[in-house]
Amino acid sequence: MDQPRWALVTGASSGLGVEYVRALARGGHNIVLVARNQDRLQTLAQEVERDFSVATEVMAADLHASRAVVRVAKRLSDASRPIRVLVNNAGYGIGGDLAKSDPGVELNHLAIHITVPLELTRAALPGCWSEEKAE
Ligand SMILES: NC(=O)c1ccc[n+]([C@@H]2O[C@H](COP(=O)([O-])OP(=O)(O)OC[C@H]3O[C@@H](n4cnc5c(N)ncnc54)[C@H](OP(=O)(O)O)[C@@H]3O)[C@@H](O)[C@H]2O)c1
């Protein structure tokens, strides 16, 4: 019997992330939804379970926190429940004057768009490859 296909979407609580979740669920993927706002994730998870008969997992995680990134990475590298698709979508834009900005805010912004996707992608690759080979 075919293994269920799982996708993990970061930033799944609003905007583009919601649409990625709906599109992947429409295509038959089970979804792990990641963002900070657990209530919004739960509401969307219930919606796609109902509309597309897929399974979901909700992971409330602040990707500015390294422990949360490790937790999501562990889920991605769990060989017993492989993730086939990773969507590194969490993030935001910041404006303002770089010369006057808070360095912590700038570093968080860089991390969520660069180092966090790098870590998550590294964690996901072995599972994605083994899923590809299994086909
Ligand atoms: N919309 C555009 O025109 C556009 C253009 C260029 C690039 N992008 C990029 O595309 C992505 C989605 O944009 P969008 O317009 O859909 O933005 P959005 O509606 O603001 O959604 C951003 C998502 O990222 C999550 N997020 C933000 N900070 C997080 C954190 N610290 N930990 C975990 N999750 C976090 C938010 O969830 P929580 O608040 O619940 O954590 C939310 O689900 C972003 O990376 C954005 O930079 C968008």
Descriptive report:
The chain contains 4 helices and 4 strands, in the order E-H-E-H-E-H-E-H. The chain is of the alpha/beta class and 135 residues long. It has one domain: Rossmann fold, CATH 3.40.50. A 4-stranded parallel β-sheet has the order 3-2-1-4, with helices on both faces. Strand 1, helix 1 and strand 2 form a beta-alpha-beta unit. Helix 3 runs parallel beside helix 4. The N and C termini lie close together (12 Å). The site of NADP nicotinamide-adenine-dinucleotide phosphate has 20 residues, from helix 1.
Task: Give the SSE layout.
Elements: E1 6-10, H1 15-26, E2 30-35, H2 38-52, E3 56-60, H3 66-76, E4 85-87, H4 103-134
Parallel strand pairs: 1-2, 1-4, 2-3
Please describe the structure with a list of short key phrases separated by commas or semicolons:
135 residues, binds NADP nicotinamide-adenine-dinucleotide phosphate, alpha/beta, single chain, globular, 4 strands
